[in-house]
Amino acid sequence: KETEDAVELGLRWLVRQQGRDGSWSLKGPYGDGASGENRVAATAMALLAFLGAGHTHQEGDHSRVVQRGVRWLLQQQDREGFFANEGSSHQRTYAQAQSSIVVCELYGMTEDSWLRDAAQGALKYAEKAQGKDGGWRYNPGDAGDTSVTGWYVMALQSGIAAGLEVDQSTLYKVRGFMDTVMDSDGVRYSYQPRGSPSATMTAEGLLCRQYLGWQPTEPGLIQGANMLVEPNWIFKRQDPNVYYWYYATQVLHHYGGSPWRVWNDVMREELPAMQVKQGREAGSWAPQKDRWASVSGGRLMMTCFSIYCLEVYYRHMPLYQKLD
């Protein structure tokens, strides 16, 4: 009940932040907004929170909100499948991948023919933007990084789940890229090849591996899942890192067993406790001290990613039979 109440309170906050044109903003009108603007990214992130709770443009208590948001988002997409957006190339590539997930997920949930061309176009753009090394980064064809690549992997997987066309060779090349950012121990991942492994990139790398076919018996996944709940990497309220929490929560939910129970026992208590319960920002999460939201995404990013974590129980079907 605590996690469900937190999700609904968070969605209500997002409803209040939607602009008249259907979009959301990274900068405000709320407090502690991001320093830069990217309405495509903000709108995609907000919509993913509603979709994760089962709200579409056709059904759910927030169907009108979703309808207005997705209509605005599709108006930004060009004939090449790109969602034209403001901000740096760094922001644009994340916005593109997140928007692709939105249209693919929404099509998969509703099978509304109105969305099919937009979703398929976004997937085709992703395939064309892939670098020769199998990853994605800030500009089409760039040598990849794990952070951006993870979002595109999820977009492609959302397309597959929705029954859309995805070139399997694209996914094959991603596997090659993941090998280049994997540490010699076969467990930890770095941002780019020959970089230093980190908790965040390890969680994202392991999620990619799960979607790309690693089974729960894979030694690297077994060690990785247990590493995510070690004292240095477990969910810590006093050391917020919502980007890491987002990926680790998904990896461990898919993996199941003892690592998931250890993570979930902490996360389901601590994350709702961090939510603002009163006042103008009730339903949101404050971005202060967070490693990423405090410097880039602001309160909207912090809130959306926190909601995603609390929706993990039903947002994606577990990939494996639960391990005991």
Average pLDDT over all residues? 93
Task: Give the biggest beta sheet.
Answer: none
> In terms of per-residue confidence, which ranges show pLDDT below 50 for 5 or more consecutive residues?
none
Helix fraction, binned, reads 55-70%
Distance between the termini: 25 Å
> What quaternary form is this?
single chain
Compute the gyration radius: what is it? 18 Å
Order of helices and strands: HHHHHHHHHHHHH
The 3D shape can be described as globular
Strand fraction band? under 5%
- Summed up, the helix count is 13
* Counted beta strands: 0
* Helix/strand structural class: mainly alpha
What can be said about this structure in brief?
By secondary structure, the protein is mainly alpha-helical. It contains 13 helices and no strands.
Describe the structure.
- The protein has 13 helices and no strands.
- With 324 residues, the chain is mainly alpha-helical.
- The radius of gyration is 18 Å and the shape is globular.
